């Protein structure tokens, strides 16, 4: 029923650890700020740590322990290699930002203590690897030098630190690494200036670019002298126009320059001349140099050739020689190779073998050895952006193929039971069993438990996960068009969900992305079939998509109408068919939308005005106009949260019967928006503001008219605010500075205009307004009830369970700071709770008031598991009313099925049907027996 | 003596009634006090109006078209309401005037809002009629800052024109304030505006305006209890429901059992009676037994 999957994200750095330890491991750091130790044989996680969102890993290395540098070079940590326990942690202070560098010299060892050199925040620190003590610090920022490289000189305890002061002054320091003593300081000016990265070619030579990016500057600082040598790129026979940059690499005597879309490998000859060794396209990736057996070096080059990937391992400095050349078949859904790390091992014949760890465009991680992919990890699933669900195909009865398969299976089973099956047959039986097992079948089930989770990831890859066991049914790397080279994906929408008609069509999802980062960038639409995982269509639009609104209308093929709002506040209708436009025209005057400009503190409501006026006649483009606006004063309020109701939420009943046999009518509007604002001073971290200058104002706004239905100030409170809006209530979580605790508040809205409909006679005679259409333009008569409770945890995400008909009582799903999901009954967040509820109220289910919300350990839906880096919780109703499906995602994935009021509409799994049947049979038998007996007796009586 | 006591009781009753009436009256005045808290009237059974203070109208609700009374001119401010018909440009349509009250801790609030609307010109009337025909929007706007209009931007609000006409043109403003800033204005009909909006022309072309100023409410504080209330019982949810009584649990078995017993008892009661009465009439009694159910009991 539940499943849990662990991921790490796209690998940034990898360090192999092979020394003598029995089990070979690789330690990686990823873009999801995860540090993990992986098994090299199977790719499993030995241990893993998810650092915070702001704790970006800058460097990783192995000294005695695993050393990581993170948080822009300010945190240095050591983790125990076998089990990942943190050994020590040091904070490195500095004044100025600079490039964080981590260097663990191999030969600077005193007993077991090896030295760690860290250059960050303008300072160079030497740290002991045993306890993280800072041995010495040298401040280069004071001399306004920006450190570019820390270089270890061979076989000595001296290091070179090179950097720039300004853009043209070059500094080289020679420092004794053991005590931080400055041995020598040289400086020289270069008129051309420096820009970009430096590439270290040898221990006393480096190469960089001048400010025009057309000249390669070789800087050598041998023998206490600095010498510059300029080489024009055109002299190397290369066209230097366009984007030129030096790629960071650690090859000896060689470096890589990227020009437009190809890469040059340039070698420094013994006469200090530069010469081009090789020229490849930009898709080719080179690994860092690896030292194996006594000073021999090797590096790997990975090139693409059609559906194959060629891996060559070359000895250092010799381009034309190959140590290993392998070619592997690569699934094109994995995209291009992004990174490669190599590692050597001793073969059985005592020669050197190489294995490569490859990071692909789709964030997957592969281990390649002997021309085979040993294992792979789908780590794109660690960076989910959006999730939606899709129904599975309906089971087709009586299909001949299935029948044949079935009889085959029966035959195999018979063979299995008679112990005649060969191992292959056993495997086949297992596979078929697994495939047809109730939970992982590829067809729709009666209760609606089996679904496809369609998941969009940062890698632009879409996965379909089976809800039964979490396996990947299909995956698709979105097609990249020529017009756009850095597309980003944003959201998933259900485009087509065949329901009544068009049953033979497959459902599809709409993926909205944009070309570039800014919100004004043109949008990209892709349509993906959810059964086959094929991209049906893809468009590069001319306009941007700031907002996407699925409309509650579908056309005859069940394609949902969507409106895309561009940055000029025009709306565009999709699909672009005449049928869609005719549907849209009918509802023209009833289409409203709102926009929240959080930075400006403005919320606006809009309506459709007319067709776009422009040179190009576009039938699907419409102008809009502003209907209302709410402007928050910049000096006192800042928007930090805006939450609306889920569009597909179902509410079972509007009336709520209270204990006094009274009826309260819920104010249920789809157009409700919850907005929370805080004092700008208190918008930072908790503790940055005094309680007196912090306040939180919450609003409930009708988005059609802009009417503020409810407005309430919490003094001394501040964000972050997490809120969920459902039915007629909103629950939000914030921090109370006065009480030094987190709080959760609930607000419920009731409609007073319907409150008179209590008279049965009136209802019978039809003198009620319950069936009258509700209009936002009417003045609402509402009352609100609120209550506040303390809550122990800080919260990462809040969601609410949703069921098919909305009858089942609700639970709040709270993603806690411990990356777990807690289910909390909505009854605890009832504003009608009082200290001493009357008997009648108790019967209604009102819990006596307490000042804090209970955290019951059994109500963690994740049990003892953790969903590391929790970002979102999705709830989907199953067809069975009592049950809701929950999918929590972050770096890990977790899926479960919840029944907030128990499964009252289905029998439990351990229900004994046999006993029931037996009882019935026994009863029937007893009836017959007694009947016969009584008949006999009566007869006897009569004969007497 | 016998008559005196009820009389006395009656007197007592009336007296207590009087007392109750009195106390309820006092309670009412208390309510008023709460209302006028911000005018500094504390204590005293009746809201006393000091001669130099203006009448204590509630700052939140003020009906319109009051004459501008005696006020300090320095703290009086005005800001204009502008309106637009459909997508036309905004033109002035009326003026709000209010008193700017500076409290001791420096915060400024508006009180005593008054509104005077300009009468519709013939042209306006035509435009409005067109809006009614088209079921289009009548839009208004206010400055977002009342002291230095327009502030950051104008606050816009709109309503379908067909919602306004009643007898005259009924309009209702709810102005949400934050200090001297206007956050939002909710503009609409005074009452309901049910959905299929009927075209209806007003009898008279004058506005009947209602304005309400609203400031933010304070949130209720989280309840704070002594520790012991919170103990294990704080999580009342997981405590198993109290064991139901024997009767509540097994009534469905007990009732039929009881019926059977009663039946049997009545049978048993009937039997001896018949035996005594009938004596030799065994034939009859046998017939009676046959009708009964518990025949086995007395058959020897």
From TrEMBL, chain A:
<protein>
    <submittedName>
        <fullName>ER membrane protein complex subunit 1</fullName>
    </submittedName>
</protein>
TrEMBL record, chain B:
<dbReference type="GO" id="GO:0005789">
    <property type="term" value="C:endoplasmic reticulum membrane"/>
</dbReference>
<keyword id="KW-1133">Transmembrane helix</keyword>
<keyword id="KW-0812">Transmembrane</keyword>
<keyword id="KW-0732">Signal</keyword>
<feature type="region of interest" description="Disordered">
    <location>
        <begin position="275"/>
        <end position="300"/>
    </location>
</feature>
<keyword id="KW-0472">Membrane</keyword>
<comment type="similarity">
    <text>Belongs to the EMC10 family.</text>
</comment>
<protein>
    <recommendedName>
        <fullName>ER membrane protein complex subunit 10</fullName>
    </recommendedName>
</protein>
<keyword id="KW-0256">Endoplasmic reticulum</keyword>
<feature type="region of interest" description="Disordered">
    <location>
        <begin position="43"/>
        <end position="73"/>
    </location>
</feature>
<feature type="signal peptide">
    <location>
        <begin position="1"/>
        <end position="26"/>
    </location>
</feature>
